[in-house]
């Protein structure tokens, strides 16, 4: 069932219940349902309906969700992006000619919008977590998200009387899922649109549940307020964080997944990751290997990437899929012990950054001959993106200001390098490609040939 239909149902049963609380407005379910219908009628007048992809980049999170659910109601596929993206960046994602919404949709009066929806409808398109310099959108059928809602409710205890804080941008699939799940459940979604910073404690005074990435959990636990449950997705969660949550009286439900795969495994009590309901897991290792690739088979996986875009998602002939994450050998009934991404991807603060995509963008900076991007260890984020730049032969090293300007305009926040180095000549392998592992080793060893850019 479309999430918009859930909203209509809650509006009929509990019209005065708060549905969404954003920076500019709070709406009851009755008010929100009517707003969605009016926006859907506007989209249908524009010819945006079944089979269409609608690019949505609205700054206000309540208006953004209105557009998303109006598209869902009209039968289109909503694709949420950043409000600040320009036409070129949108064209990279969705192709030319795709309808784009960058302002609140107007209300159009008329009868309720109704259409028959199917579980296999391509109802959602979302971005992997900061993983690509050329934006990579993942398309999924309706049921691959909505049918998992009841399992998440069972695991977390989230219900219609909860107030759920979603403290991040909805361009992130983690936060988008959290907001839509909250509305499908009939709870109240608190949507600051970004990390609330100084107002976090005030938000937590009214919230019973929060969705966060691991490095934000310590901030939440400083002033837990009325919090009962923290749903934590992204990077691994250590036992110290769980102990701190226990001390604050907050239950933690942590999960592992990927935008392409949705839920794969969940840890409800600190005992380790076990398959999410409906998921089968295999770890495929070479004979005698210490680690292997994680493969999953479930109803929750996506349909793949929008357009002719390559990515880490792979499928075999039996319905198993993988994005290249690696783990220790696994047998059914055991705990899944993840060890990271096997393709060199950087896990930073719950986001996955593919080095090659950042490198492609930075190579366009004048004076850059080549560049290698790696992850440098960080105590709270897990890793930070680090760029090692080789000057174009015959040119002086590019200025850090130029590099950072390109990063700000062409990369998402998680992808932007936090540390910059310059090398006179990039170490290369026998095929002439940069030797990424050797560069990482030289940096770790403090090699003087790698000079920090001020």
TrEMBL record:
Record key words, sorted: Ligase
Matching InterPro entries: AMP-bd_C (IPR025110), AMP-bd_C_sf (IPR045851), AMP-dep_synth/lig_dom (IPR000873), ANL_N_sf (IPR042099)
SUPFAM superfamilies: Acetyl-CoA synthetase-like (SSF56801)
Entry annotated with the keyword Ligase: yes
Residues of the AMP-dependent synthetase/ligase domain: 10-94, 111-306
UniProt superkingdom: Bacteria
Keyword Oxidoreductase set for record: no
AMP-binding enzyme C-terminal domain mapped to chain residues: 358-433
Similarity comment text for this entry: Belongs to the ATP-dependent AMP-binding enzyme family.
Protein name as catalogued: Class I adenylate-forming enzyme family protein
Organism the protein comes from: Nonomuraea insulae
